[in-house]
Amino acid sequence: MSEGTDHVVSRGGVDIAVRDHEGTGATVVLLHGGGRAMDDWRRVTPLLTAAGLRVVTVDLRGHGASGAALWSWPDAIDDLAAVIDHLGLDDPAVVGHSLGGIVAALWATRRPRCPLAVNLDGHTNPTGPFDLDTGAARAAEQTMRGFLDAEVRRAGDPALARLVAELGALDLFATYRATRCPLVVVQSAGQDLEELLPPEVATVFAAYRRGFARELAAVAAATPLLTVVDVATGHDVHLEAPGRVADLILDRLSPAGDGSRPADR
C-alpha cells in the first residue's frame, strides 16, 4: 500500500480507520469488500494517485483496523459521511468492491452532488431472481436459503448473522433505480465463486447470475444515471484488473467535467 496519513474517525462509539493518500485533484473514497480491509486497494491506489487524484481508503466498521461493530446500512452510510466530514472532502467519488460497492450504491441514492459512485460486483444474498421457470425458481430459492442458513449456523458468528440478514433485507434493484448521481455497476463474468460452492448450490448460483444480469439490464435501460459494465474477471475485479478499474474511475472524473462518459477501455 502506498504511503499516506492515517486517521481514526470516531462515530457512535466505533472507531473507523482511514488512510488519506493525499493528492490535489478530484477525490475518490475506496471501500473494500466483506471480510477484507483497505489494503485490498493496493493495486489501484498508486494508479489513481499517479494520475493526480486524492485517494482515501477506509476500513469499514467491523473490518481491518476499525472497531468491532454489528453491520447496518444506515451505520455504514453514517460512518462514510463522518469520514468525509472529518477530512473536509468536497463531494468525493465513492467506489466500493462487493460489500463496499453496495455502500457506494446506497450513497448514490442520498448524495446528488456525488460525481460518481461505483459498485464493483457487489450483490445481496443470491436468493433471486433466477433464470429458471417458476417452479424451478422456487426450489432454487429454497436451496440457496438453506445453504446460507447452514453457513451462518456453522460459523456461529453473530456479526456474520447480522450481515447476512442485512443483505437479505436490501432491495438492490430499488437502490439502483433510486440513484441520484452517476452510478456504475461492474459485473464480473468469472465463475470463481461458483467453484467454491457445493455442486447443487453452484448450479443455483449460476442461474442467479443469469437472472440478476437480465434484471439489471432492464433496470439500467430505464435508469439514465445507471451504467452497467461487464468485465471478464472473477469477483475480485480490482485485484485482477486494477488498470481497468483505475481507467473506469479516471475516465469519468476527467478534468473536462463535461458530463460525458468515455467508452470503457
Q: Which helices and strands appear, and what pairs or packs with what?
A:
Layout: E1 5-11, E2 14-20, E3 27-31, H1 45-50, E4 54-58, H2 73-87, E5 93-97, H3 99-108, E6 117-120, H4 134-155, H5 158-169, H6 172-177, E7 183-188, H7 199-221, E8 226-231, H8 237-240, H9 242-252
Parallel strand pairs: 3-4, 3-5, 5-6, 6-7, 7-8
Antiparallel strand pairs: 1-2, 2-4
Helix pairs in contact: 4-7
Kindly describe this structure:
This protein is an alpha/beta fold and 265 residues long. The protein is built from 9 helices and 8 strands. It has helices spanning 45-50, 73-87, 99-108, 134-155, 158-169, 172-177, 199-221, 237-240, 242-252; strands spanning 5-11, 14-20, 27-31, 54-58, 93-97, 117-120, 183-188, 226-231. Strands 1-2-4-3-5-6-7-8 form an 8-stranded mixed β-sheet. A hairpin with a 2-residue loop joins β1 (5-11) and β2. α4 (134-155) crosses α7. The two termini are 25 Å apart. Mean pLDDT is 94; it is low at 256-265.
Task: Describe the structure concisely.
This protein has helices at 45-50, 73-87, 99-108, 134-155, 158-169, 172-177, 199-221, 237-240, 242-252; strands at 5-11, 14-20, 27-31, 54-58, 93-97, 117-120, 183-188, 226-231.
Question: What shape does the CA trace take?
Answer: globular
Major β-sheet, in short? Answer: 8 strands, mixed
Mean pLDDT: 94
> Helix count, per DSSP?
9
Distance between the termini: 25 Å
Order of helices and strands: EEEHEHEHEHHHEHEHH
| Subunit arrangement of the protein | single chain
Strand order of the largest sheet: 1-2-4-3-5-6-7-8
**Number of DSSP-assigned strands:** 8
Low-confidence residue ranges: 256-265
Structural class from helices and strands? alpha/beta
Indicate the percent of residues in helices.
40-55%
Question: Beta fraction of the residues?
Answer: 15-25%
Radius of gyration: 18 Å
